Amino acid sequence: MKALYCQQNSSGEEMTFIFQERENLPPTGDNDVKVQVRACALSWIDTKLLSEVKLEKELLPVGREISGVVLEVGRKVSFFQPDDEVAGILPLDSEESGLCEVVLVHEHYLVHKPEKVCWVEAAGTVRDGVRAYTALHYLSQVSPGKTVLVMDGASPFGTIAIQLAQHRGAKVISTAYSLEDKQYLERLRPAVGMRQPLVTRVIDVSNGKIDVAESCLEETGGLGVDIVVDAGVKLYSAEDESTSKSQLLPHKHDIITLLGVGGNWITTERNLQLDPPDSHSLFLKGATVSFLNEEIWNLSNIEQGKYLCILEDIMEKLSSSVFRPQLDEPIPLYEAKVSMEIVQKNQARKRQVIQF
After folding, report:
1. Does residue 239 have a pLDDT over 50?
2. What is the pTM of this model?
3. What is the mean pLDDT of the chain?
């Protein structure tokens, strides 16, 4: 069996992705489940995080979000039996590549996949679903009547976050980075119930002329938004920002300005720096800043039960069409290397899923 791995010879060098022939799988452990993989989603590999938690190695397995069929179970496995359809995320320290025909997974990283959910949707939604639940249920408490701003709502994660927030009764505002993204967000409708747009207001920031803070305050009658889920922020002045995408990001001061009293700012910016005036503004509003890192569920087993509940809820929402992911066309295994290079360069606008 072949499996896909990535190789980084020295820091700063571009990664190379290689298929390696695997030896036969080790015997199935007491709590292991042997899964025949039917689909595997591709996600950006965070080498910095792996290095910080001492999990960096010469060959890193590629592909962690999988769906498939159970072939064999260990003698202590209680949740699954052969022929069950399952989905889940391989842990951060897994030696297994999800881009392999058969993998061994501990039963606590898998949940049952509903029959009506296809393999590609299950694998392609599970990570973005975990991120959305982490942001909107654990780092903040989305509920009816709240206003949620989702930055870059047309991204795979943004789409799921919008659908979850709207399903919970929140009013959703979103930003779009292009005319195509704006049109996509304006077309979003619930699959069931009233056919109102999922996004109350789409703020097109592609030309750099629209003030996000001003637009949000206008939409909320000057009260500000309750929850902000960003897609990165500008930390410095415009001339210090190098990439074209960073020019479209809001400044951290804009986000603090548009936050309402008691608001929650969920940030993906790991190097966020707040100056004393920023902290004072947050203090006056009684607002909070939280860092979104969905890997916490796999880095610690202390809340394994909650994590499994999240995975089960994601599958249930896929089954009931509450979640309709932003997926590209399924990709054959022989194109996995090229697709993974695109993903690692952050050039894919839709979730890439390999179908076996």
Report:
1. no
2. 0.92
3. 90
> Which stretches within the chain are classed as H helix?
47-52, 119-133, 156-167, 179-187, 212-219, 244-248, 252-258, 276-285, 296-299, 304-319, 336-344
Give the containing element (helix H, strand E) for 315. Answer: helix 304-319
- Once rounded to an integer, what is the mean pLDDT over residues 189-204? 82
**Average of per-residue pLDDT across 178-188:** 91
AA letter at 27: P
Could you tell me which residues come within 8 angstroms of residue 244 by beta carbon, excluding any fewer than 6 positions away? Answer: none
Q: 23 is written with which tokens?
A: 């030896």
The span from the CA of 309 to the CA of 251, in Å, is 35
Distance set, CA 353 to CA 104, 126, 217, 324 (Å): 20, 12, 38, 15
Residue 62 CB neighbour total at 10 angstroms: 27
pLDDT at position 11:
60
Tokens of 328: 């590209």
Q: Which of 4-22 are b and which e, b meaning 16 or more Cβ less than 10 Å from the residue's Cβ?
A: bbbebeeeeeebebebeeb
SS3 label, residue 148: strand
Helix (H) or strand (E) holding 206: none
Kindly provide the residue ranges of all beta strands, DSSP E only, lying in the chain, ordered along the sequence.
Answer: 2-7, 16-21, 32-41, 59-61, 65-73, 85-89, 102-106, 110-112, 147-150, 171-176, 201-204, 225-229, 259-267, 288-291, 353-355
List Cβ neighbours of 193 (8 Å cut-off, separation of 6 or more). none
Structure tokens at 176: 């779009």
Tell me 23's DSSP state: P
Strands 32-41 and 353-355 come out as antiparallel
* Cα 17 from Cα 3, distance rounded (Å): 10
The Cα 240–Cα 248 span in angstroms is 13
Q: How distant is the alpha carbon of residue 316 from its chain centre? A: 17
pLDDT digits (tens, 9 = 90+) for 4-58: 888 876 665 678 888 888 877 888 889 999 999 999 999 998 888 888 888 888 8
